[in-house]
Design a protein that fits this description.
alpha/beta, Nucleotidyltransferase, domain 5, DNA polymerase, domain 1, 3 domains, six-stranded mixed sheet, two-stranded parallel ribbon, 3'-5' exonuclease activity, hydrolase, nucleic acid binding
Length: 423
């Protein structure tokens, strides 16, 4: 789970302007911090303990983003009524993770999972064979309730009157042994998740959004991951300043070389070579070690040792086919370019955004949750005038990732915006 923000003072107001009640600090799990289950035997015993409980499972996972190349889970926290909390080490058991963790996966299939920001944790849990049969995402529920702040600490304070202090979510969870204070933080992340689920579910029920939430959670549970785009090197920070195709070829080769090293060593790419160094080397294009090591970052002892690796990458770039300056894309260009390239589409997009913004205010849901902005852009860019815009819009939304509640609400608004032909 991403690191929780500080809960704030007791005088902080909620979205209605009403002062929030003073929060009670939540400093330690009520049953204490459990031992970490690391061995095959301990993990099987943890599964038996969870099976003895009842009701939904509060689930969370900790990764080592920014430290490791992989997005794997390095700790899994689970809590269930009647069983308490278990902490699972999914990497230190010495066997095949999916096999060793099969007893946990089997037990967790028995009931609903409660997670906060489930899209962050589901991929790394699926990687070790653990998948939910039903899901409730308290962060997404908070968005549907139109809360301004939906981080775990803010929602726990608002709905449960408890204060979670800033923790260790951004730490290197691949570290072993894990410090006791980190384990305390990890256990607290699932301590009150089920209580939070009940509280936010009551809010959504009062707002008439329970069915919307159900559809959103089921979509989140079943959606297949979008394949990673081919030209990932184009996400290098600062690449917008590089317009020369030959320099872009150097960015591509340096990025690819760094990625191969990072993958092999399971180290975050930025710890191998920062993006700023890639851009600097690509734009100056040094052809000797002396020139390369005159650049910032490359002058350090670590990069001086690896200078030949980066120099070889620059050499390969000089003889490679330069890439297009603009990234090839099957979708519409950025909306900022529409007025020049396709002004009628820009007019449609403005009308569609205005209708959706008004609708979002009426139903008290963030406009980006009402319908994916990407879908709105694609519809407006490809739109062809028709005698029946309502049917055309509905057919488009049905063929996309839009959920039923989104089609029923946003479809008529979009049809209204697109009904008038653009001159």
């Amino acid at each position: 789970m991403s690191e929780s923000e500080p809960a704030g003072s007791s005088l902080e107001s909620d979205d209605t302007g009403t002062p929030e009640p003073e929060a009670e600090p939540l400093l330690a799990p009520r049953d204490g911090v459990p031992d970490v289950s690391s061995s095959r035997y301990e993990i099987a015993r943890a599964a038996e303990l969870l099976a003895s409980g009842t009701g939904p499972f509060a689930v969370d996972a900790e990764r080592a983003s920014g430290f490791r190349y992989s997005n794997r889970a390095y700790l899994v926290q689970i809590r269930r009524a009647g069983a308490g909390t278990v902490l699972i080490d999914p990497v230190s058991h010495g066997g095949e993770s999916v096999e060793v963790l099969a007893p946990i996966a089997e037990v967790l299939a028995d009931d609903e999972w409660v997670l906060h920001a489930a899209d962050q944790d589901l991929p790394c849990l699926a990687e070790i064979g653990i998948r939910p049969s039903a899901l409730y995402d308290t962060e997404l529920a908070g968005r549907l309730a139109n809360y301004d702040r939906v981080n775990l600490a803010a929602m726990v304070q608002r709905l449960l009157g408890l204060q979670l202090t800033k923790g260790h979510g951004a730490a290197d969870w691949s570290k072993r042994p894990l410090p006791e204070e980190w384990l305390n933080y990890a256990a607290l992340d699932v301590e009150v998740l089920v209580d939070l689920r009940e509280a936010i579910a009551a809010v959504l029920e009062e707002q008439g959004k329970t069915e919307w939430a159900r559809q959103e959670f089921e979509y989140l549970r079943t959606v297949e991951a979008v394949p990673t785009r081919r030209d990932r090197w184009r996400r290098t920070s600062g690449i917008h300043k590089v317009r020369d195709p030959k320099a872009l070829a150097a960015v591509r080769e340096l990025w690819t070389t760094r990625d191969q090293i990072a993958r092999r060593r399971d180290i975050a790419p930025g710890r191998i070579l920062p993006d700023s160094a890639i851009i600097s080397a690509a734009t100056t294009n040094p052809d000797t070690i002396e020139k390369l090591t005159e650049l910032p970052i490359f002058s350090g002892s670590k990069q001086r040792r690896n200078a030949q690796v980066w120099l070889d990458a620059l050499k390969r770039a000089r003889t490679s086919e330069p890439p297009d300056v603009q990234e090839p894309s099957n979708g519409p260009p950025p909306a900022s370019r529409w007025a020049r390239r396709k002004p009628e589409a820009a007019v449609r997009l403005e009308a569609a955004r205005a209708e959706l913004t008004e609708l979002a205010q009426q139903v008290s849901v963030p406009v980006e949750n009402l319908l994916s902005p990407e879908l709105v852009r694609r519809l407006c860019w490809d739109w062809q005038d028709t005698d029946d815009p309502a049917t055309t819009v509905d057919a488009f939304l049905r063929s996309s990732t839009a959920r039923q509640w989104q089609r029923e609400l946003a479809g008529p608004a979009l049809a209204k915006a697109l009904a008038t032909p653009v001159q």
